[in-house]
Recover the amino acids of this structure.
């Protein structure tokens, strides 16, 4: 609670960067994303304070349209940060992990077997025939895992956690599922401008967003990314 009667919104502070150079770019992306989202929340606090000073009334309560749009912006920035961090992490560490981490190697082998099951694609054929077939197949594998944005806990499990060789003991599926509400909100905002019924011709209401809930959703997403980077760094350090 701020001294002026309005509520500030503080994200959980990031801990110290994990040891290791391979994860540094992804951690830098996370730091930038965290700062951007915190900046949106700081801006919202200033808007609410200005309204309170203008009206002389407590700014707490139902949010105005402009304030709710700032919450929507926080969700979009968080989603963009999550995608950027995780894709960079995959690109930088998977080539290391598939050659030394048992779980990451198994997932890569499963991918190759599936690609070859019904006959290789043109891209896979080119990779096999190249002077460095394994490197090229790993490149295709990473491209497949990073070609689209992350859409929910299943994506986080199959395209991120398992690809990085992170075990359920390190990050369990329940932790991933905590982000499903965040992704539902993100998709509603990005694809439908957060309208409750985007197919309606008129009188369309927008989904309500509350300050506490959005802060928690964004915080959960960013702290999960931090933990994914941390566990990936541990897996890289454990390589033979």
């Amino acid at each position: 609670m701020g001294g002026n009667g309005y509520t500030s919104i503080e994200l959980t502070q990031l801990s110290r960067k994990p040891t290791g150079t391979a994860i540094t770019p992804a951690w830098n992306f996370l730091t930038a994303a965290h700062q951007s989202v915190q900046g949106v929340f700081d801006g919202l606090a200033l808007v609410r304070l200005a309204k309170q000073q203008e009206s002389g009334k407590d700014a707490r309560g139902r949010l105005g349209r402009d304030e709710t749009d700032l919450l929507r912006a926080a969700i979009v920035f968080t989603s963009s940060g999550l995608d950027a961090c995780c894709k960079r992490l995959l690109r930088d560490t998977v080539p290391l992990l598939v050659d030394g981490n048992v779980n990451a190697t198994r997932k890569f082998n499963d991918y190759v077997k599936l690609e070859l099951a019904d006959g290789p694609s043109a891209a896979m054929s080119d990779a096999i025939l190249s002077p460095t077939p394994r490197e090229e197949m790993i490149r295709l594998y990473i491209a497949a895992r990073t070609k689209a944005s992350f859409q929910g806990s299943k994506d986080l499990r199959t395209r991120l956690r398992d690809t990085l060789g992170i075990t359920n003991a390190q990050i369990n599926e329940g932790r991933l599922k905590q982000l499903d509400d965040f992704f539902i909100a993100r998709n509603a905002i990005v694809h439908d401008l957060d309208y409750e019924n985007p197919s309606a011709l008129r009188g369309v209401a927008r989904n309500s967003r509350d300050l506490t809930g959005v802060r928690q959703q964004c915080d959960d997403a960013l702290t999960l990314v931090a933990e994914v980077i941390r566990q990936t760094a541990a897996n890289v350090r454990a390589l033979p």
